[in-house]
Specification:
Layout lengths: L21 E12 L2 E8 L2 H6 L7 E6 L3 E6 L10 E6 L3 H8 L5 E8 L5 H4 L3 E7 L3 H12 L8 E7 L8 H9 L3 E7 L9 E2 L2 H8 L6 E6 L2 H13 L7 E4 L15 E2 L2 E2 H4 L2 E3 H11 L1
Parallel strand pairs: 7-8, 7-11, 8-9, 9-10, 11-12
Antiparallel strand pairs: 1-2, 1-6, 2-5, 3-4, 3-6, 12-15, 13-14
Bound molecules: FE2/S2 (inorganic) cluster (FES).
Length: about 290
């Protein structure tokens, strides 16, 4: 399977109007950090609830009626589809409005959009998952997807970092992965507090110390731009080729369907051609634009 494997891009349209969202209900909210929450939601329409499918790495446009909409990746795994999840960091008007919602509130959803992670390409490989902060949201969908079909993959390393212990997201997942004997899970924070007994250090530094082998391996990197920018050179130093490094970009998206022109970087549209890319696809412009 090629690295540029494209998902089937199946979309669940609410009607002829591509901007018309489906109505979904928030079922549960998890406080991840002081400014980040995970929302569990399901579609109101029973048929859609049954038939909806997506791929790890795809995103949707979520709307708060009367406020606006914003793109977020689906952070749950397609292998666990009794409900869907997305995580939101409070940074602006739409995200603040989302944080004010409680369980039972209705939101809009259109999608799924974009490609997904190239699962076929990852099969039979050693996998190195590297994430920072809320960048774990798209990656946890892939990690659970992979772990639910564990036999198809070889060694799994997960390196996850955040600024401080209070900024670690999905701690319930981190605990599960730590207990999984088939996974090498390493958590780090830039700076610990009095109660932190774990590792300290930036993600790229920790990656260099751990030095996972590049042999028959693929690294998947998700996180803040600065982390991604410093992680790729470390991977290259460890012997990973540009085709062995994958990331997901979430830059400047608005319409999500290749119409508004907001998300282009060089010749590519993040929403339409991504958001998942190999470093080989984006290396020519990532240093100047991302
Ligand atoms: S978000 Fe509109 S073209 Fe990509």
């Amino acid at each position: 399977m090629a690295i540029d494997e494209i998902s089937n891009r199946k979309r669940f349209l609410a009607g002829d109007n591509v901007y018309l969202p489906h109505i979904a209900v928030i079922e549960k909210i998890i406080e991840e950090t002081p400014d980040t929450r995970t929302f569990h939601f399901s579609f109101k329409d029973e048929k859609l609830r049954r038939e909806f499918s997506f791929e790890s790495g795809q995103f949707g446009e979520f709307s708060i009626f009367g406020v606006g909409e914003a793109p977020f990746c689906i952070s749950s795994s397609p292998t666990r589809c009794d409900h869907l999840e997305f995580a939101v960091k409070r940074v602006g008007r739409v995200t603040s409005a989302l944080h004010r919602l409680g369980a039972g509130a209705e939101i809009g959803f259109r999608g799924p959009y974009g490609n997904g992670f190239p699962l076929g390409y990852l099969e039979g490989k050693n996998l190195v998952f590297i994430a920072g902060g809320i960048g774990l949201a798209p990656l946890r969908s892939l990690i659970w997807n992979v772990l639910d079909k564990r036999d198809k993959y070889r060694k799994i390393d997960i390196i996850y970092g955040a600024r401080s212990p209070a900024d670690l997201c999905f701690t319930y997942d981190l605990d599960s992965w730590k207990q999984d004997k088939t996974v090498n899970m390493v958590t780090t924070v830039d700076k610990g507090d009095d109660s932190w007994t774990g590792r300290e250090g930036f993600v790229p530094q920790v990656l260099e110390q751990l030095a996972p082998s590049a042999k028959e391996a693929v690294a998947v990197v998700c996180g803040p731009p600065v982390m991604i920018r410093f992680t790729f050179p470390v991977l290259a130093k460890l012997g990973f080729t540009p085709g062995q490094m994958i990331t997901t970009l979430e830059k400047r998206m608005k319409c999500g369907i290749g119409k508004c022109g907001r998300c282009n970087i060089g010749d590519i549209y993040v929403c339409r051609d991504g958001p998942v890319f190999s470093y080989a696809q984006i290396r020519d412009f990532i240093s100047s634009e991302y």
